[in-house]
Design a protein that fits this description.
Helix content is 36%, strand content 15%. The protein contains nine helices and ten strands. The strands form three sheets. Strands 3-4-5-6 form a four-stranded antiparallel sheet. The two termini are 43 Å apart.
Length: 301
Amino acid sequence: RDEGWNENDFKSPHQHLIGDSTHLIPDNVPFAPAAELAVALPVDDSPKADCYIDDMFSHFLEEDATRGSRIIPLVLHLLSRPLQDDESLTRDDVLSISKFMAEAPPAECVVVLGWMLDTRRLQIELPENKYLAWTARIDEMLKQDRVTAKEMAALLGRLNHAGFIIPMSRHFLGRLRQAQYAAEKRHDGVALSAPQRANLVLWKTLLKQARDGISMNLLTYRKPTHITRSDASEHGIGGFSATTGIAWRWEIPPALRWRATLNALEYLAGYVTILMEIRLGRAPSESCFLCQTDSTSAAGW
């Protein structure tokens, strides 16, 4: 927070056209609490600004709304050449007032890089127009007898975008990429297999989840709220929670042994250990689990 800058004296010459309006969520909507991080960050609530290619955005507290709303128009004015009265080549000012008024006034809900950010509820959401367009495209593709590589590439780019807030969902892109690679070898495209069609149907559910919103607390490096340990052998699997003290085990019947790989059993043990905490009501919403196992493959899954 630079106290040397007076936003009332030194501002964009277009500020009178922009004003200082803000779009806030009604006060009856509570602020979502931020969960504790796994790393210690210094407290810094001063206004910030960032730029990604040609998208510039700033973020600040409500008490800094005036300063925060005026900084971007000022920076654009400083970095560009002001228009002269006798310009030899007619051109528009670098700042589009209509575009700025439509997209840039301070708000608690704003679209940034294709995502709707809700800073009061601490949620990130897939915008409704993207959700409708992408699910409609999936429906169209499910009706097609064959799909081309270009069609698959376009859809995969959109689904990969959605995977940024549901990282595990990218597991279900593998079969769809195989369809794209196969279609690249044929001019008339390929027919989707039953598993590939099932993945497309699943993606409609995942896109709805992205549209409904994902908590930002689930996308940060969190301090674990639950620490569990699990292990597996050819004779059985088990695990326990170091947080709640709940433990379990299951001896594999002799007739079922060696039917699954040890890595698969390690993964199943870790999953059941987490599921046990959830089913017994010991894991509230947005809990963060650190599941310790001696299998790096299972931990990665």
